[in-house]
């Protein structure tokens, strides 16, 4: 049998073929395997393939032989990741706000290589980079790595911190000065990544949205805040600081003072449409899960934010406020 031009890569291509084209439900016959090798300009005899299968097993790749009627089929048994696990990984990538659309697609294409091409077709029906709000900061992927490096090396970091303006542009906070803090943990909450750090200037623990951090540099100074983080309860901090809402979805019109625009871009995405109402105020209409938690979020934004419509949501907020105030009036009367 004449040798193919890629003969020295025979084992590599055979592994690729078995990995991509076979699984527990899909197998190849020996003639099919030889035909697949020919596509890579590799020629082989059955006996050499059997020897290669034995070598694969030494690398932890088990090849199962099955007899179906008069034909013999071969497939890979067991993989590093099961199909259900790969689906879980894809769900995590899709739902993570801190990963951009571009990076999400790239990561998912890599994750799909953990399964056969047949299983990947099943995943394709699942893979929809939907309209979830994603970060627009492409560098966030590497910011996480820099923060981990600083934590592992017990070093402070410096960075510039950004916010949204009414024109939907990221602008520097505090005139573009560098923030210098001691990172102690990364927290993934409400589909966003946060850095938990100690600010020894203010002598307190703070959190920062990783996708709003840019120009990160790992410093030479050792971290501060060791005593503050000795008994720090991350779960308790997360519950007290983050979280949002569930409830019936309704289109809600919200009026706000322009300087509050970043709050809504963060929550609903850069594609959110703002309508100018006067020189200092704008409105947006968004689908909201109306609930007491949502009203609590509105209260937390203060007098610069107002629900304008629909009437039933405004009335519901009024009733919720009355009950809220009545409760504290009763408490006050008991004191």
Q: Keyphrases for this structure?
A:
single chain; 335 residues; alpha+beta; four-stranded antiparallel beta sheet; 11 helices
What this model shows, in words?
The protein is an alpha+beta fold and about 325 residues long. It is built from eleven helices and 13 strands. It has helices at about 10-20, 30-40, 45-60, 85-95, 100-110, 115-125, 140-150, 235-240, 260-270, 290-300, 310-335; strands spanning about 30, 60-70, 70-75, 155-165, 170, 180-190, 190-200, 205-210, 215-220, 250-255, 275, 280-290, 305-310. Strands 4, 5, 6, 7, 8 and 9 form a six-stranded antiparallel β-sheet that branches. Strands 11-12-10-13 form a four-stranded antiparallel β-sheet. Strand 2 (about 60-70) and strand 3 (about 70-75) form a beta hairpin. Helix 4 (about 85-95) packs antiparallel against helix 5 (about 100-110). The longest helix is centred in the last third of the chain and has 24 residues, at about 310-335. About 15% of the residues are buried.
List the helices and strands and how they pair.
Elements: H1 10-21, E1 28-29, H2 30-39, H3 46-58, E2 62-68, E3 71-77, H4 83-95, H5 101-111, H6 117-126, H7 140-152, E4 155-164, E5 170-172, E6 179-189, E7 192-199, E8 204-209, E9 213-222, H8 234-241, E10 248-257, H9 261-268, E11 275-276, E12 281-290, H10 292-300, E13 305-309, H11 311-334
Antiparallel strand pairs: 1-3, 2-3, 4-5, 4-6, 4-9, 6-7, 7-8, 10-12, 10-13, 11-12
Helix pairs in contact: 4-5
